[in-house]
Write a structure and sequence with these properties.
This protein has about 240 residues and is an alpha/beta fold. It has one domain: Spore Coat Polysaccharide Biosynthesis Protein SpsA, Chain A (Alpha-Beta Complex). The strands form two sheets. The chain has a seven-stranded mixed β-sheet with strand order 3-2-1-4-7-5-8, with helices on both faces. It has a two-stranded parallel sheet with strand order 6-9. Strand 2, helix 2 and strand 3 form a beta-alpha-beta unit. Helix 5 packs parallel to helix 8 and helix 7 packs parallel to helix 8. The two termini are about 30 Å apart. One of its GO terms (molecular function) is dolichyl-phosphate beta-D-mannosyltransferase activity. Keywords: Glycosyltransferase, Transferase. Belongs to the glycosyltransferase 2 family. This is Dolichol-phosphate mannosyltransferase.
Length: about 240
């Protein structure tokens, strides 16, 4: 068993899931993988089950009924990981928008002292490939909006490529994390900082998916936009110790 586990939430990722799993398992550092699949009708979960025969002690699958949102998938994954002895717990997309090679850099950032390491698209300019300009601008200015409302200094607040040291997830009351879309990523970073954890961004190159369909929607964007204000106001009435 590795001390590091990568949580990959999936919904209809049959084109990508086997390739991403094999790539992670080919890295020079050992990582386990937990796939949290929301009942993908395209058979993503079936592909993972077949691969478990090949990687019985490294590949794990949690299946949920229905599409319940990114945030709840990660919370489910965090709780599964905390019930085991993992020291480093990662978030990563299934579609290769996050380069699996960067898992090693994220882990090393936590090994040398960060409590939470973020793979950032915006720490050194704008490092995004194959996104239309309107989406680049929306994402970039959304992070600026988050900094303005919350006061945190994270450049890529919606980033979904993250390594947590175990004690961060043991400290944050996961049952109080309420957002389910990309606002979940903002809430986790904001909460970690409010608890006093050291959050470090490292530069990555984000490449938009080439296979499968994006899960972005207007509802998810709206949750993030208005949720940031709600989150900030709620923080005035919470104690972080």
């Amino acid at each position: 068993m590795s001390d590091s586990v990568v949580i990959i939430p999936t919904y209809n990722e049959k084109e990508n899931i086997e390739k991403i799993i094999r790539k992670v398992f080919s890295l020079a550092v050992d990582f386990d993988i937990l796939v949290v699949d929301d009942g993908s009708p395209d058979g993503t979960g079936i592909i993972v089950k077949h691969l478990q025969n090949e990687f019985p002690d490294r590949l794990f699958l949690e299946e949920r009924k229905g599409k319940s949102g990114l945030g709840t998938a990660y919370i489910h994954g965090f709780q599964w990981c905390l019930a085991r002895n993992y020291a480093y717990i990662f978030e990563m997309d299934a579609d290769f928008s996050h380069n699996p090679d960067d898992l090693i850099r994220l882990r090393e950032t936590c090994v040398v002292g960060a409590d939470m390491a973020i793979g950032s698209r915006y720490i050194k300019g704008v490092n995004v490939v194959n996104w239309p300009m309107n989406r680049v601008l929306m994402s970039y200015f959304a992070s600026g909006y988050v900094r303005w409302i919350t006061g945190i200094s994270v450049r890529d607040a919606t980033a979904g490529f993250v390594c947590y040291q175990r004690h961060v997830l043991e400290t944050i009351p996961l049952e109080r994390i309420k957002f389910v879309g990309y606002a979940f990523q903002i809430e986790m970073k904001f909460t970690a900082i409010k608890y006093g954890f050291k959050v470090v961004e490292i530069p990555i190159i984000f490449t938009d998916r080439t296979e499968g369909e994006s899960k972005m929607s207007t509802r998810i964007f709206r949750e993030a936009f208005f949720g940031v204000i709600q989150m900030k106001v709620n923080s005035w009435f919470r104690k972080y110790s």
